[in-house]
Amino acid sequence: MADYGVTAPQGFVASATTAGIKVSGNPDMALVVNQGPEFSAAAVFTRNRVFAAPVKVSRENVEDGQIKAVLFNAGNANACNGVQGEKDARESVTHVAKNLGLQDSDIGVCSTGLIGELLPMDKLNAGIDQLTADGALGDNGTAAAKAIMTTDTVDKETVVFADGWTVGGMGKGVGMMAPSLATMLVCLTTDASITPEMAQTALSNATAVTFDTLDIDGSTSTNDTVFLLASGASGITPSQDDLNDAVYAACSDLAAKLQADAEGVTKRVSVTVTGTANNEQAINAARTVARDNLFKCAMFGSDPNWGRVLAAVGMADADMDPEKISVFFNDQAVCLDSTGAPGAREVDLSGADIAVRIDLGTGGDGEATVRTTDLSHSYVEINSAYST
Amino acid sequence: MADYGVTAPQGFVASATTAGIKVSGNPDMALVVNQGPEFSAAAVFTRNRVFAAPVKVSRENVEDGQIKAVLFNAGNANACNGVQGEKDARESVTHVAKNLGLQDSDIGVCSTGLIGELLPMDKLNAGIDQLTADGALGDNGTAAAKAIMTTDTVDKETVVFADGWTVGGMGKGVGMMAPSLATMLVCLTTDASITPEMAQTALSNATAVTFDTLDIDGSTSTNDTVFLLASGASGITPSQDDLNDAVYAACSDLAAKLQADAEGVTKRVSVTVTGTANNEQAINAARTVARDNLFKCAMFGSDPNWGRVLAAVGMADADMDPEKISVFFNDQAVCLDSTGAPGAREVDLSGADIAVRIDLGTGGDGEATVRTTDLSHSYVEINSAYST
């Protein structure tokens, strides 16, 4: 049992291997296995109507609230591969189930990488045999976290110690991050003894205010998947509130790590909107600003160009008083009543973290925060030559 | 009478001057005057709820369907300047009206440039006196077109010769281009004898399928304004259809010139969506793809990464059959039935123009095209240091 990551909670083992799917030759396959005694599972998937084959298969298999193992590969998303893609995803699930002595419906599958390329099934099947070979499965959470990286520069793990039970997790994701989760694969594990319903409630509540409010570039992946697996090995059944808190803490920590490692990021920007009729309007407005390229370029340039904030928020689907909008950069007022505040252009935004707060002036108590990044040269560089 | 631009139609004169509003020291003010005998006018303005003072004043003054002169300044948008900004806009209108012996309500006013800086009224008032000085007003359409440029690299004019009557125009705009017009000022002139209603019908129809479908960076300006002024000097009253056609042709030509000169553009990209239930869904889908940063970066890299097109369109507010989506780059199939087509990755996108066509597979006959550009290093460069 590790002190960090997916194998931190009791009842979980993992393995990782290099199957040759990544051109880099780095580890590219991982397996997380729940050894029980319980197997409650919950999941949240991308809302993109163009979703990958592994999403389709995992969605089916988690339907019954039970998942005993999740297979991961990086380097190939197995998305937009039509009938063959689905066939390949099912074949890999059957292979894992057979090697572990489980049913196909006990297996979850996650792929990340290039869209539109068929999986190299020979390599994938050889990798599955390595992941399930004698002695392969163990306290290997960190190795698994490294194996699911794509253009991530660091592996991302988390742990939350509760009262006699634990939540662990790993995640990956760097670009194509948008409202319907980031482009990411996340696997959370816990040794709490909980029902699938408790797990789904905790996971849905947590993702709504963590991964769903992480918006790096407005793009949404075909593969986004978050699993929560519960082994019950601690023998402790927490209250729903305690479970919600622990799962939220784990998701929030991983979301912050995804933001910090986003493609080409030089600034971590939080956009908070207040003064709306409700939280939904606040999040619409925060997302509109967080996605505005002119605003994001200004952040890259450490330019306190608050006019772009007003221009962006003015198009948001939210009620506002166009004469009473206020904007704060790092808590310094730069715009009051929709007009420049003294010294606004002298605000120092040279630091790596920028907090933008916008009050839309309706007097309502709606509030929401969206995490985003700046739009930098390296974002363009990385994303103008990804598939080639 | 010129053969091009706003002074091509009979009855129009213009002037331009350097008032010192632009830091560059280039010409930065212009005046377009309709000498009649008729003064029908129509206008379309930004839909941004945060709109500039000149938009507010121009909207009031065109209410009665009559505008006799339009004042332009570049270098300062007079946006987000609160009460003082509106006072300054009205003062400039009153000054022009007084010098020309007109009523305030006869004057339109347009500003473009940095948001949130007060207009230098001393310079502006001196400029107005120069624009209206003896001999200043004449066949100076091109000089006016140059004076309204901001980061435009070329001045933008157009002319459409109809059957005995003419439509001329000038425009500017390079960034912050989005659905509610581009970030742009456009002034169209015609010597046709038409009612304000005819003018508004022709202008609204034309902008809906030209400037409104130009989406460079998803941002929407606080100052977007398009004027159509009619002098009736030709004595000819065209049919509404003929007027619509000529105004559309003028707007389409200017929209193409705005796209070609967009900030940092290295590729001119058209995104056409077909196979939707109606045109509205097609434009929603085309706009979603045209705004997707990962797609735009791929275009910059001449990368036929059709997977990003599917990932982007999958989030669009449009009905689709996720299994039956087809994508074409420059008329070559790269994705059929949501799966890669043979040779898809070898498509040559090295040219400056890229036509992307997406069929959403519902069998509907909805269709729409959005013009956009790639996302390049220079876009980031230009926009990360605009106000500084």
Automatic annotation (TrEMBL), chains A, B:
The active site is at T183 (nucleophile). It holds the Pfam family ArgJ. It is found in: Cytoplasm. It catalyses: N(2)-acetyl-L-ornithine + L-glutamate = N-acetyl-L-glutamate + L-ornithine; L-glutamate + acetyl-CoA = N-acetyl-L-glutamate + CoA + H(+). Its main location: cytoplasm. It comes from the Bacteria. Substrate binds at T150, K172, T183, E263, N383, T388. GO terms for molecular function: L-glutamate N-acetyltransferase activity; L-glutamate N-acetyltransferase activity, acting on acetyl-L-ornithine as donor. The keyword tRNA-binding does not apply. The record marks A182, T183 as: Cleavage. One of its GO terms (biological process) is ornithine biosynthetic process. SUPFAM superfamilies: DmpA/ArgJ-like (SSF56266). Keywords: Acyltransferase, Amino-acid biosynthesis, Arginine biosynthesis, Autocatalytic cleavage, Cytoplasm, Multifunctional enzyme, Transferase. InterPro entries: Arg_biosynth_ArgJ (IPR002813), ArgJ-like_dom_sf (IPR016117), ArgJ_beta_C (IPR042195). The record marks T112, G113 as: Involved in the stabilization of negative charge on the oxyanion by the formation of the oxyanion hole. Its EC number is 2.3.1.35, 2.3.1.1. The keyword Lipid metabolism does not apply. Pathway: Amino-acid biosynthesis; L-arginine biosynthesis; N(2)-acetyl-L-ornithine from L-glutamate: step 1/4; Amino-acid biosynthesis; L-arginine biosynthesis; L-ornithine and N-acetyl-L-glutamate from L-glutamate and N(2)-acetyl-L-ornithine (cyclic): step 1/1. GO terms for cellular component: cytoplasm. HAMAP family: ArgJ. Heterotetramer of two alpha and two beta chains. Catalyzes two activities which are involved in the cyclic version of arginine biosynthesis: the synthesis of N-acetylglutamate from glutamate and acetyl-CoA as the acetyl donor, and of ornithine by transacetylation between N(2)-acetylornithine and glutamate. Belongs to the ArgJ family. This is Arginine biosynthesis bifunctional protein ArgJ.
